[in-house]
Amino acid sequence: MATTLKTVNLQLPAKTEDLAKLELGNVVYLTGRIYTAREGVYKRAVEDSFGLPAAPEELGFANFHCSPAATLNPDGSATVGAVTATASFRFAKWLDGWFKLSRCNLILGKGGMSSEIYKKHFVPNNAIYLTTVGYGTGALLGRGIRKVAATHWVNELGLAQAIWVLDVENFGPFLVDSDLAGNSLFERENAKIAPNIDKLYAGTKPATMRRYGETDDKTEEVI
Amino acid sequence: MISIAALQKTAEALMAKAAIEIPDDYLGGLRKCANTEKGDLSAFVIQAMLENYEAAKEDRRAMCGDTGVPRWYVKIGNDARNEGGPIALEAALRRATANATHDVPLRPNRVHPLWRTDHNNNCGIGAPEIEYAFHPDADWIELTTVHKGGLFGSDYRMLFPADGIDGIKRFYLDTLIQFGRRGLACQPAIVGIGLGGSKDICMVLGKQASCLRTVGSRNPDPKIAALEEELKEVGNNIGMGAMGFMGSSMVVDCHIEVSYCHTGGMPMSVHMFCLSSRRATARVHGDGRVEFRTDPVWFTDYMRRTTVEWEEPRREAAE
Questions:
Q1: Displacement of CA A133 from its chain's centroid (Å)
Q2: pLDDT at residue number B319
Q3: Which residue segments constitute the domains of chain A, with CATH numbers given?
Q4: Between A and B, how many residue pairs show a Cβ–Cβ distance under 8 A?
Q5: Of the partner residues A25, A69, A85, the one whose CB lies closest to the CB of residue B67
């Protein structure tokens, strides 16, 4: 894809020295093995203490927060259409246990997580976060899938929450959201946009009635 | 008499079209964003999406892996009758949803809210939703499917008459900024605003405004049309673009629909139809003819009628 942004092809499993070269906002394409795991898998593996259904070496070390638009055929083969990530901020509470179990050094998803989470959980594990683009380059990502290597927990969790182990080639695009120091591209962009926001509201007055949730003080009224 | 086979076959075709083919009106709107976007990251995102639509059409695969929560809007001509009546029609739409989930394939997103049971076919209690409307002097049935994302970008608030247009602008900005950060709303989006009605209708109306009107269409009330234009500008001047990166691509278009509400209130809802604005419509005639299109033409003079009895709008005399 034509762009002025720096573009990198990353071989999986990713070496720490290769991750160290990535900068926030770089475009990344992946080749190697990845696997999907979202809330169903995190809860079952970490919270319900089932562990992982296969060795990390078999699953790979890049966890994609997603589930594909896919069908399992009666003969066991799979038809995979499009794949798109789901928002990652919801998985923070399981991350400590997740990194210990999975030994992942790449997390792929939608929208990133906070730099606080990156510093607490990603940095000690030499892991970084890559965000999908759009969102919804599902067809482009679908093209990058060479093979469904395995599926796990389809009966336990259903097709959408199951683990799909995927062998991919030039799979992307992704953008680097966090680096090995735990900085976040999204937070950098938020900070650039923030100074303009007050101006947008200038001259208008707050709504007559506030809403529950605008304050954490349960004794306050909303009128 | 419209046959059930024709309705089901059409519904299956619509499911695939919605999932795979981005409507031309949204595509045109996004290309305009691409031409004006100065932010390098936001521009990259839009370029990637434009290539993604091409890939989806070439490969006949869903444009986005999160294929949303498929739903149906059915408009029934006053003189239309279908084989088996409304029960058979609903069964045909449920069968089409289940079949298309397997055949396209779509992601089986629909689960029980508590037990997370997944039938792997996007059907279950209350799923897919089917909404109905009617049309005078017609013998066709129109089917529209919308596959809207299900998690981020919508909000509701009870405003009051004293809050006025300022109150509308503030809540609009609140919603766009909060859901626009990190691109959770998958913008640039078609933003739909529901004003008025009861709380439930306010939400329904805002969703219909985002999903069932095409980019470039305007509310027939000139003052509301002007507010649509103004809010589009306001949204694109936040400083935020695709994925919440710096830029100017937030709102592909803004649509407002109104409904009479309680005299003391001004309820408002905001909805965002995303970079995969998936909708497809077909008109099925009694003689079996089927016409496909991407404009649902949901909001008609009849739908927006204000009088007790329905009267055709008076036409200017030909001379």
A1: 11
A2: 46
A3: 7-201 (3.20.130.10)
A4: 202
A5: A69
Maximum mean pLDDT: which of A1-15, A203-217, B28-42 = B28-42
pTM, two decimal places: 0.94
- pLDDT band at residue B311 under the 50/70/90 scheme: confident
Nearest chain A Cα to B243, which residue? A134
Distance of CA B7 to the CA centre of its chain: 21
From B71, B182, B122, B157, select the one nearest A69 (Cα to Cα): B122
Cβ(A166)–Cβ(A35) under 8 Å?
A: yes
Q: Which residues of B touch A2 (CB under 8 A)?
A: 47
The ipTM (two decimal places) reads 0.92
Q: Which residue has the tokens 């699953």?
A: A59
Contact between A193 and B240 under an 8 Å Cβ cutoff? The reply is yes
Specify the CATH class of B4-17+63-149+279-293 in words: alpha beta
Mean pLDDT of A175-182: 98
- A201 and B173 in contact by Cβ < 8 A? yes
Res A69 pLDDT > 90:
no
Q: List the single best residue of A64, A80, A133 to mutate versus B (max B Cβ within 10 A).
A: A133
Contact A67, A36 (CB under 8 A): yes
Annotated domain spans of chain B? 4-17+63-149+279-293, 151-273
Q: Nearest by CB to B118, from A111, A142, A158: name it.
A: A158
Query: Residue B268 pLDDT > 90, yes or no?
Result: yes
The verdict on a CB contact (< 8 Å) between A111 and B182 is yes
Chain B residue closest in CA terms to A175: B41
